[in-house]
Amino acid sequence: MYSKRVVKLMNLKLETMALNFFIMLGFFYCIYISSLTTANFMFVALNYFLLCLLMYFSLKKYKLLLNPITLLLPLCLAYLYYGFMLSDRQVELRGDVQASFYLFILFYTIGTFFPFKITGQYSMTISRNKKLFADLIFVAGLVIFLIESILNGGFPILVTVISRQDIYSELQFIPVFHYLVMLITIMPSVYYYFYKYKKISKFYLYVILVVSFFVILNTLSRQLIIFGILSYFIVYIKLNNITSTKFFLKLLLSTGILFLLVGQLRLLAQKKDISALDYLKAFSGVPEQLNVNTFDVTFNLYTSLNFNTLNDFYVNAENFYYGLYTLKPVLVLLHYDEAFSFQYRPDLDGFTRLGTVISDPYLDFGIPGVILFSFFYGTILSGAFISHVQSENLGHSLIWATLSYAMVMSVFANFFNVLFIWICIIFALFFCFTFRCGTIIKRNTL
Questions:
Q1: Which one of 47, 217, 271, 316 has the fewest CB atoms closer than 10 angstroms to its CB?
Q2: By three-state DSSP, how is residue 383 classified?
Q3: What gap in Å lies between CA 369 and CA 361, rounded to an integer?
Q4: What pTM did the predictor assign?
Q5: What is the pLDDT of residues 76-109, one digit of tens each?
Q6: 419-430 vs 127-151: helix axis angle to the nearest 10?
Q7: How many CB atoms lie within 10 A of CB 434?
Q8: Rounded CA gap, 59 and 115, in Å?
């Protein structure tokens, strides 16, 4: 017992030293990038300090790297990168845009101290019902995927590689039923749960993993790749009681590699006789002579420039919309926008144009909306995290994974009001509240 405790303390000390080393290394890198551009170093230094403060505070509060506060780091890192002013397309952000960002971070963090957690007894189903439900969803999603592949002239990833054409924007999906294909993203997590409780064989699990990976890769969607990896790692870490920083770094590395891999595949048809770095520089408005690497340009293109879009929203919004943008998925699905003759402005479409998570709350209620919704997101993420940690229920882990994904993607758009997120939560709730002939089955069992 004593030796294990010593080893644990030594590992913790080494991890702390490694974290401090990378923080110092990152600071010097910020100085280097700032020296290449017209960056406001005070802006960069302030936001780097905020990034480090959130990291230390979250580790102090939760003792785990993956927690509700560290989910803010992609958004904070994107805002930090904006300060480097790598692209000619970037403008100086308005004061109210900057205030909205800091208020979002502040009130989200405050919200984590007031976790919204559903209490009470959860009725659990036997594994046969759970597995049958999962099998039905998986098979249905696979059938829809095969039908869509026929409609698209083959498996999308093979078509992209062979024809060297970017077919992502031309892919045909079957309305509504395509959500079944998207649900395959979290099936590896579900079946790994079954495997750990010895309800399926290792071979069965491997088949599910291979088929799911192939389907997700063929969506050509980096969003689904991120969700699939994140949800699987969350369930894997939970079931194996892993707290190591190394495992968390593996999560980041694997996600980054697949993100870049799919990005390169989609670039095959677009770049000709120039390198990927030169193409990305031209596409994102980064000067060709600027000595930055592919990560800097890619991250700036896909994340930091979204604050440019957010700035445009603040400039172009003529009035507030009082919930119309927050409830857009429901209103459009039920055709209420047509019934009440309301047209959404394309230039204020936070999901299509990527205006970060801040865009919809601001468009609906201004800065008070940003404060209110950031606090709300903090409460639900904190509650989901606590439920995930304290319960062995698969449903709680899937809800935490889904909300974590929405928060990670906040650097792109407001994923909390995306219909697919709601579908995933409903799917997860099946594993929390299930009955068998009106009889409540034993809590926290399969």
A1: 316
A2: helix
A3: 5
A4: 0.88
A5: 999 999 999 999 999 999 999 999 999 999 999 9
A6: 150
A7: 18
A8: 17
